[in-house]
Amino acid sequence: MPLPFDVLAEPSRRKILDLLLERPRLVGELTQQLGLSQPGTSKHLRVLREAGLVQVRQDAQRRWYELRPEPLAELDAWLAHYRHLWTGRLDALERHLDAMEDDPR
Amino acid sequence: MPLPFDVLAEPSRRKILDLLLERPRLVGELTQQLGLSQPGTSKHLRVLREAGLVQVRQDAQRRWYELRPEPLAELDAWLAHYRHLWTGRLDALERHLDAMEDDPR
DNA sequence: CGGCTATATAACCCGAATGGCATGCTGACG
DNA sequence: CGTCAGCATGCCATTCGGGTTATATAGCCG
Prior knowledge:
Two copies of one chain form a homodimer.
Chain A: H1 5-8, H2 11-22, E1 25-26, H3 27-34, H4 38-50, E2 54-59, E3 62-67, H5 70-83, H6 91-102
Antiparallel strand pairs in A: 1-3, 2-3
Helix pairs in contact in A: 3-4
The structure holds a DNA duplex.
Protein backbone atom coordinates (compact mmCIF):
# COMPACT_ATOMS: atom_id res chain seq x y z
CA MET A 1 0.00 0.00 0.00
CA PRO A 2 1.80 3.13 -1.18
CA LEU A 3 1.62 6.38 0.70
CA PRO A 4 -1.71 8.11 0.07
CA PHE A 5 -0.33 11.58 -0.66
CA ASP A 6 -1.81 11.82 -4.11
CA VAL A 7 -5.20 10.68 -2.84
CA LEU A 8 -5.15 13.25 -0.06
CA ALA A 9 -4.02 16.00 -2.40
CA GLU A 10 -7.64 16.43 -3.47
CA PRO A 11 -9.50 18.88 -1.17
CA SER A 12 -12.87 17.18 -1.66
CA ARG A 13 -11.38 13.88 -0.60
CA ARG A 14 -9.91 15.42 2.54
CA LYS A 15 -13.30 16.91 3.27
CA ILE A 16 -14.86 13.48 2.91
CA LEU A 17 -12.42 12.14 5.47
CA ASP A 18 -13.23 15.01 7.79
CA LEU A 19 -16.93 14.24 7.50
CA LEU A 20 -16.37 10.54 8.04
CA LEU A 21 -14.34 11.34 11.11
CA GLU A 22 -17.57 12.26 12.88
CA ARG A 23 -19.60 9.30 11.75
CA PRO A 24 -20.28 7.01 8.77
CA ARG A 25 -22.29 8.64 6.02
CA LEU A 26 -24.31 7.88 2.92
CA VAL A 27 -23.21 8.95 -0.52
CA GLY A 28 -26.09 11.35 -0.86
CA GLU A 29 -25.20 13.02 2.38
CA LEU A 30 -21.60 13.47 1.32
CA THR A 31 -22.70 14.77 -2.06
CA GLN A 32 -24.73 17.45 -0.39
CA GLN A 33 -21.95 18.51 1.97
CA LEU A 34 -19.38 18.62 -0.82
CA GLY A 35 -21.51 20.64 -3.19
CA LEU A 36 -20.71 18.58 -6.25
CA SER A 37 -22.59 16.06 -8.34
CA GLN A 38 -23.40 12.59 -7.06
CA PRO A 39 -21.23 10.89 -9.70
CA GLY A 40 -18.38 13.18 -8.72
CA THR A 41 -18.73 12.12 -5.13
CA SER A 42 -18.86 8.45 -6.11
CA LYS A 43 -15.65 8.84 -8.07
CA HIS A 44 -13.82 10.31 -5.11
CA LEU A 45 -15.17 7.54 -2.94
CA ARG A 46 -13.83 4.98 -5.35
CA VAL A 47 -10.38 6.52 -5.17
CA LEU A 48 -10.54 6.57 -1.39
CA ARG A 49 -11.73 2.96 -1.34
CA GLU A 50 -8.94 1.74 -3.59
CA ALA A 51 -6.46 3.57 -1.40
CA GLY A 52 -7.86 1.78 1.63
CA LEU A 53 -8.91 5.01 3.31
CA VAL A 54 -12.60 4.15 3.48
CA GLN A 55 -14.73 1.05 3.44
CA VAL A 56 -18.34 0.49 2.49
CA ARG A 57 -21.16 -1.23 4.30
CA GLN A 58 -24.16 -2.03 2.15
CA ASP A 59 -27.69 -1.52 3.46
CA ALA A 60 -30.29 -2.17 0.78
CA GLN A 61 -29.66 0.43 -1.92
CA ARG A 62 -27.72 2.57 0.50
CA ARG A 63 -23.97 2.50 1.08
CA TRP A 64 -22.55 3.60 4.38
CA TYR A 65 -19.01 4.85 4.01
CA GLU A 66 -16.68 4.82 6.97
CA LEU A 67 -13.03 5.55 7.71
CA ARG A 68 -10.17 3.08 7.52
CA PRO A 69 -7.20 4.72 9.23
CA GLU A 70 -4.41 2.31 8.23
CA PRO A 71 -3.06 4.42 5.35
CA LEU A 72 -3.04 7.44 7.62
CA ALA A 73 -0.95 5.49 10.08
CA GLU A 74 1.56 4.81 7.32
CA LEU A 75 1.62 8.49 6.53
CA ASP A 76 2.32 9.09 10.19
CA ALA A 77 5.20 6.66 10.02
CA TRP A 78 6.64 8.53 7.07
CA LEU A 79 6.35 11.81 8.92
CA ALA A 80 8.14 10.30 11.89
CA HIS A 81 11.44 10.47 10.01
CA TYR A 82 11.16 14.23 9.98
CA ARG A 83 9.53 14.83 13.32
CA HIS A 84 12.77 15.43 15.22
CA LEU A 85 13.21 18.55 13.11
CA TRP A 86 10.45 20.44 14.87
CA THR A 87 10.16 18.74 18.23
CA GLY A 88 12.80 19.64 20.70
CA ARG A 89 13.30 18.06 24.08
CA LEU A 90 10.57 15.47 23.55
CA ASP A 91 12.73 13.45 21.23
CA ALA A 92 13.94 10.98 23.78
CA LEU A 93 10.43 10.23 24.97
CA GLU A 94 9.23 9.78 21.42
CA ARG A 95 11.97 7.35 20.60
CA HIS A 96 11.04 5.46 23.71
CA LEU A 97 7.41 5.30 22.63
CA ASP A 98 8.38 4.15 19.16
CA ALA A 99 10.43 1.38 20.69
CA MET A 100 7.45 0.39 22.81
CA GLU A 101 5.33 0.00 19.72
CA ASP A 102 7.85 -2.39 18.22
CA ASP A 103 8.02 -4.48 21.40
CA PRO A 104 5.05 -3.58 23.57
CA ARG A 105 5.62 -6.03 26.44
CA MET B 1 0.29 28.32 4.40
CA PRO B 2 -2.03 25.58 3.14
CA LEU B 3 -1.37 21.93 3.77
CA PRO B 4 1.35 20.67 1.45
CA PHE B 5 -0.40 17.50 0.29
CA ASP B 6 -0.29 18.36 -3.37
CA VAL B 7 3.38 19.27 -3.14
CA LEU B 8 4.22 16.00 -1.43
CA ALA B 9 2.12 13.99 -3.86
CA GLU B 10 5.03 14.09 -6.28
CA PRO B 11 7.48 11.21 -5.70
CA SER B 12 10.50 13.17 -6.90
CA ARG B 13 9.74 15.91 -4.42
CA ARG B 14 9.47 13.43 -1.57
CA LYS B 15 12.79 12.00 -2.66
CA ILE B 16 14.29 15.48 -2.55
CA LEU B 17 13.10 15.85 1.03
CA ASP B 18 14.55 12.47 1.89
CA LEU B 19 17.90 13.51 0.45
CA LEU B 20 17.83 16.85 2.26
CA LEU B 21 17.05 15.04 5.48
CA GLU B 22 20.65 13.81 5.52
CA ARG B 23 22.28 17.10 4.64
CA PRO B 24 21.92 20.21 2.47
CA ARG B 25 22.62 19.59 -1.19
CA LEU B 26 23.35 21.38 -4.43
CA VAL B 27 20.96 21.33 -7.35
CA GLY B 28 23.36 19.33 -9.46
CA GLU B 29 23.67 16.71 -6.79
CA LEU B 30 19.90 16.38 -6.48
CA THR B 31 19.57 16.23 -10.26
CA GLN B 32 21.93 13.30 -10.37
CA GLN B 33 20.20 11.42 -7.56
CA LEU B 34 16.77 11.97 -9.07
CA GLY B 35 17.72 10.90 -12.54
CA LEU B 36 15.94 13.71 -14.29
CA SER B 37 16.99 16.85 -16.09
CA GLN B 38 18.40 19.86 -14.26
CA PRO B 39 15.47 22.12 -15.23
CA GLY B 40 13.11 19.44 -13.98
CA THR B 41 14.88 19.43 -10.66
CA SER B 42 14.82 23.23 -10.49
CA LYS B 43 11.06 23.21 -11.06
CA HIS B 44 10.47 20.83 -8.23
CA LEU B 45 12.72 22.91 -6.02
CA ARG B 46 10.73 25.99 -6.86
CA VAL B 47 7.52 24.27 -5.85
CA LEU B 48 9.09 23.10 -2.62
CA ARG B 49 10.44 26.57 -1.95
CA GLU B 50 7.09 28.25 -2.51
CA ALA B 51 5.50 25.70 -0.20
CA GLY B 52 8.07 26.59 2.45
CA LEU B 53 9.46 23.07 2.58
CA VAL B 54 12.99 24.05 1.59
CA GLN B 55 15.14 27.14 1.68
CA VAL B 56 18.16 28.18 -0.34
CA ARG B 57 21.54 29.43 0.69
CA GLN B 58 23.56 30.98 -2.09
CA ASP B 59 27.29 30.32 -2.43
CA ALA B 60 28.74 31.91 -5.57
CA GLN B 61 26.95 30.19 -8.48
CA ARG B 62 25.93 27.33 -6.26
CA ARG B 63 22.70 27.02 -4.31
CA TRP B 64 22.57 24.90 -1.21
CA TYR B 65 19.07 23.62 -0.58
CA GLU B 66 18.04 22.62 2.92
CA LEU B 67 14.91 21.48 4.70
CA ARG B 68 12.32 23.71 6.35
CA PRO B 69 10.10 21.48 8.48
CA GLU B 70 7.30 23.89 9.37
CA PRO B 71 4.84 22.68 6.72
CA LEU B 72 5.49 19.12 7.82
CA ALA B 73 4.60 20.12 11.34
CA GLU B 74 1.29 21.45 10.04
CA LEU B 75 0.71 18.19 8.27
CA ASP B 76 1.39 16.47 11.55
CA ALA B 77 -1.20 18.66 13.21
CA TRP B 78 -3.74 17.67 10.58
CA LEU B 79 -2.97 14.02 11.13
CA ALA B 80 -3.43 14.45 14.84
CA HIS B 81 -7.19 14.66 14.37
CA TYR B 82 -7.17 11.10 13.10
CA ARG B 83 -4.44 9.64 15.26
CA HIS B 84 -6.74 8.30 17.96
CA LEU B 85 -8.14 5.93 15.33
CA TRP B 86 -5.05 3.76 15.30
CA THR B 87 -3.37 4.42 18.61
CA GLY B 88 -4.87 2.65 21.53
CA ARG B 89 -3.78 3.02 25.12
CA LEU B 90 -1.30 5.80 24.34
CA ASP B 91 -4.05 8.33 23.83
CA ALA B 92 -3.97 9.76 27.30
CA LEU B 93 -0.22 10.27 27.21
CA GLU B 94 -0.44 11.93 23.83
CA ARG B 95 -3.08 14.34 24.99
CA HIS B 96 -0.85 15.13 27.94
CA LEU B 97 2.10 15.85 25.63
CA ASP B 98 -0.05 18.03 23.41
CA ALA B 99 -1.10 20.01 26.44
CA MET B 100 2.53 20.42 27.45
CA GLU B 101 3.34 21.93 24.09
CA ASP B 102 0.66 24.54 24.59
CA ASP B 103 1.92 25.41 28.06
CA PRO B 104 5.40 23.99 28.46
CA ARG B 105 6.30 25.17 31.94
C1' DC C 1 37.07 40.63 -21.08
C1' DG C 2 36.05 35.62 -22.62
C1' DG C 3 34.52 31.41 -21.61
C1' DC C 4 32.97 28.05 -18.39
C1' DT C 5 30.02 26.44 -14.45
C1' DA C 6 25.82 26.35 -11.94
C1' DT C 7 21.14 27.36 -11.83
C1' DA C 8 16.77 29.51 -13.25
C1' DT C 9 13.23 30.54 -16.62
C1' DA C 10 10.54 30.05 -21.07
C1' DA C 11 8.11 27.57 -24.40
C1' DC C 12 6.07 23.54 -25.56
C1' DC C 13 4.09 18.61 -25.41
C1' DC C 14 1.53 15.08 -23.51
C1' DG C 15 -0.84 12.15 -20.23
C1' DA C 16 -3.69 12.07 -16.37
C1' DA C 17 -7.04 13.62 -13.33
C1' DT C 18 -11.42 16.16 -12.42
C1' DG C 19 -15.94 17.59 -13.31
C1' DG C 20 -20.34 17.20 -15.69
C1' DC C 21 -24.17 14.61 -18.07
C1' DA C 22 -26.28 10.49 -19.47
C1' DT C 23 -27.00 5.89 -18.44
C1' DG C 24 -26.82 1.25 -16.14
C1' DC C 25 -27.72 -1.52 -12.12
C1' DT C 26 -29.94 -3.17 -7.92
C1' DG C 27 -33.18 -3.46 -4.26
C1' DA C 28 -37.52 -1.72 -2.16
C1' DC C 29 -42.34 -1.21 -2.41
C1' DG C 30 -47.02 -0.49 -3.99
C1' DC D 1 -44.13 -6.39 -12.33
C1' DG D 2 -43.49 -1.42 -12.87
C1' DT D 3 -41.50 2.45 -10.89
C1' DC D 4 -38.63 4.93 -7.99
C1' DA D 5 -34.47 5.66 -4.91
C1' DG D 6 -29.64 5.24 -4.30
C1' DC D 7 -25.45 4.62 -6.22
C1' DA D 8 -21.91 3.26 -9.80
C1' DT D 9 -19.97 3.56 -14.38
C1' DG D 10 -19.01 5.41 -19.21
C1' DC D 11 -17.95 9.01 -21.88
C1' DC D 12 -16.50 13.61 -23.05
C1' DA D 13 -14.34 18.21 -22.35
C1' DT D 14 -11.21 20.77 -19.96
C1' DT D 15 -7.53 21.70 -17.01
C1' DC D 16 -3.21 20.95 -14.85
C1' DG D 17 1.18 19.11 -13.88
C1' DG D 18 5.45 17.17 -15.02
C1' DG D 19 8.88 16.22 -18.58
C1' DT D 20 12.12 17.90 -22.06
C1' DT D 21 14.94 21.25 -24.92
C1' DA D 22 16.51 25.76 -25.62
C1' DT D 23 17.77 29.96 -23.64
C1' DA D 24 18.69 33.56 -20.11
C1' DT D 25 21.25 34.96 -15.94
C1' DA D 26 24.97 35.22 -12.68
C1' DG D 27 29.46 34.45 -10.77
C1' DC D 28 34.15 32.43 -11.02
C1' DC D 29 38.65 32.05 -13.26
C1' DG D 30 42.39 32.49 -16.61
